[in-house]
Structures are given as structure tokens and as C-alpha cells.
Write a structure and sequence with these properties.
eight-stranded antiparallel sheet, alpha+beta, 39% strand, three-stranded antiparallel sheet, elongated
Length: 186
């Protein structure tokens, strides 16, 4: 009886090894033939896209024009409101005598309904007298809004104001200069 038990004990490990070996070989064979797929692997597809928007174009409609002045004996500050184009004297004793002051105006064109933002290139500039070297400072550039959406035709208009410093006893003449604005999509 003991001999039968010993044979059964010896048979069990051999049988278990044989079964494991057969299972392993069948899995390898099925995988090799492409019949067995791992249960946890799955696939999916995704879409991709890109949108090319119309490049932004900026057209100047009007220049920033402070008008005409008679200088005083003290430095004077004048500011143009970008919303309404009004000229306000902030300090000093120079006198504004007309000449058609107004805010600058720019029309932006691009892709309809996209949001755009305007920024200034400089915080201050100097305008120089024609035929001379005398200067006046313009700073505090302001917009009638920085961000807006382009309308159905792909346009928006910005107005730009600023502050002019007329020096004490400023030399007579016409003073000119340029300033930059940039508009980009947001």
C-alpha cells in the first residue's frame, strides 16, 4: 500500500508539470497563429484637426491729433480721452486754441467673432519739431477698450488717446512723431 501511495505522490507533480507545459505551449502556439488576443488590450481611434484663421490687418483711420497751443511759462499737460476725443488740460498755463484735436482710430480686420486685444508698443514717445531738435513728450496712451470680439464682418475699431506735455516757452512749429499699436488674437 505504501508503494501505491509513493507512486501517486510521484505521479501528481509529474502530471501537474505536464499539464502546465501543455497549457503554456498551446498559449504560445495560439498567440503565434494570431488566434489568442490578450483580454485587457483594446484599441480606439481619435480625430485631429487644425484651423487656420485670417491674418489680422490693421488700418489707420485717423491720427492722434492734439491740436494747436500757445505755450505758457510753466510745463502744461493735456490729455485726449480715447472714448470721446475730448481734450482736457491737466496742469500748466499753456492755452489750447483749437486745431481739431481727436483720438487716433484704427480698424482691425480678421476672422469674424474671434476675440482680439490691442497693446501699445511704447509707454511714451517724443515728437520733434519740423526743422529743429526741440521735443515734446506724449505718454499715457489709453484705449477705448483693450479686448473685443470682431463682428460678423470680421472687424472692430479701436480709438487711442494720450497725454501731451507742452514745455514752458515751447518753441513754435509743428511737432511730429509716430507710435505703434499691436493687435493679436486672444
Amino acid at each position: 500500500m505504501e508503494q501505491v501511495r509513493d507512486q501517486k505522490r510521484a505521479f501528481k507533480p509529474r502530471f501537474a508539470r505536464a499539464v502546465n507545459l501543455l497549457c503554456g505551449l498551446s498559449c504560445v502556439a495560439l498567440s503565434y497563429m494570431g488566434l489568442a488576443q490578450p483580454v485587457h488590450a483594446q484599441s480606439a481611434t481619435g480625430d485631429t484637426n487644425a484651423t487656420i484663421n485670417t491674418a489680422i490687418e490693421i488700418t489707420k483711420n485717423a491720427d492722434l491729433d492734439f491740436g494747436d497751443f500757445v505755450p505758457g511759462t510753466a510745463n502744461s499737460l493735456f490729455r485726449i480721452n480715447p472714448r470721446n476725443g475730448n481734450l482736457n488740460q491737466r496742469s500748466g498755463d499753456a492755452i489750447a486754441i483749437g486745431g481739431g484735436h481727436d483720438a487716433a482710430s484704427f480698424t482691425v480686420s480678421g476672422t469674424p467673432f474671434l476675440r482680439v486685444r490691442i497693446t501699445r508698443g511704447q509707454n511714451r514717445i517724443f515728437i520733434v519739431r519740423d526743422g529743429g531738435t526741440e521735443r515734446m513728450r506724449i505718454n499715457r496712451f489709453r484705449f477705448d477698450g483693450r479686448r473685443r470680439f470682431l463682428d460678423a464682418s470680421g472687424e472692430a475699431t479701436y480709438r487711442v488717446g494720450g497725454q501731451l506735455r507742452v514745455g514752458a516757452n515751447q518753441a513754435a512749429g509743428t511737432y511730429r512723431g509716430t507710435f505703434d499699436v499691436t493687435v493679436d488674437y486672444q
